[in-house]
User: Fold this.
Amino acid sequence: MKKVSLVIPCYNEEKNILLMYEAIRKVMNDIGKYNYEFIFVDNASTDTTTQVLKNLALKDKRVKVIINCRNFGVERSVMNAFLSSKSDAIIEMACDMQDPPGLIPIFLKHWDNGVKVVWGQRTSSDEKYFMKNVRTLYYKIIKSLSSVKQYEKVTGWGLYDRSVINSFRNLDDPMPILRNIIPDLGYDVVLVPYHQPVRQNGKSSYSLFAYFDLALSSLVHTSKVPLKCCTYLGLSCSVIAIIVAMIYLIYKLLYWNTFELGVAPLIIGCFFFFSVQICFFGILSEYVLTILDFVNFRQYVVEKERINFEE
Assistant:
């Protein structure tokens, strides 16, 4: 009988853990044709999440728990859990009940038919209008600038075959964003559309700044276009500056006694070019920071404790 691991990262999810556990257990028991286990990853929660997980692991040996020493982020924690599993397939999903457990049977059906990667695709949601449009814009930017195929409205939650997980062992990426890695490795993906409900309990740990930082990381990991844009824009600004300078020079020569340059064009020009330079430095710094992360990368997480991993 094939075995499936349900990888669920957690951070301050004390009110959602049992709901997620019961919902998944019901779905898997109804299917009845797979062995399965839970791998909960606690990212140094500050509420009672750790204790809830420990109590659950005492009652059910299928519940495995990894407790990290600090919050290493969702991406690194999930990758560490992936590499800790020995199952035939892994399903990764968030603990906030926004990834519907009801999609699991569809994922497994595609997997039985030979599909290596199956993702849930959020075609509609109950989130606020502003965030919905910001996400849509983000996916379109990544898709248009990436050198490889990218998928819109996916977070990476879904099913991964054992062969895909094994290919992750050769990665040395300090920020393993699954929705970017899978297309880069060349795997075909089957998308399963779904409606995303609102978060059931608690508050998301992701702020607008955190989303923006993740978006920048995705852009830097998937595209070199921003660097090329710096070059093209720099050349364009140089040409414009030369043309404007020539116009002013000719105009001054023709109207030497009456034409006054004025201070305003100088100030506006200086601020414009300073802004362009700062923007360039910002883009370059993102790539430099990414290189620094790769150079200093040691391991995905440092674990404080493992539970039910005796075998």
In short: The chain has two domains: 3-223+300-307, 225-296.
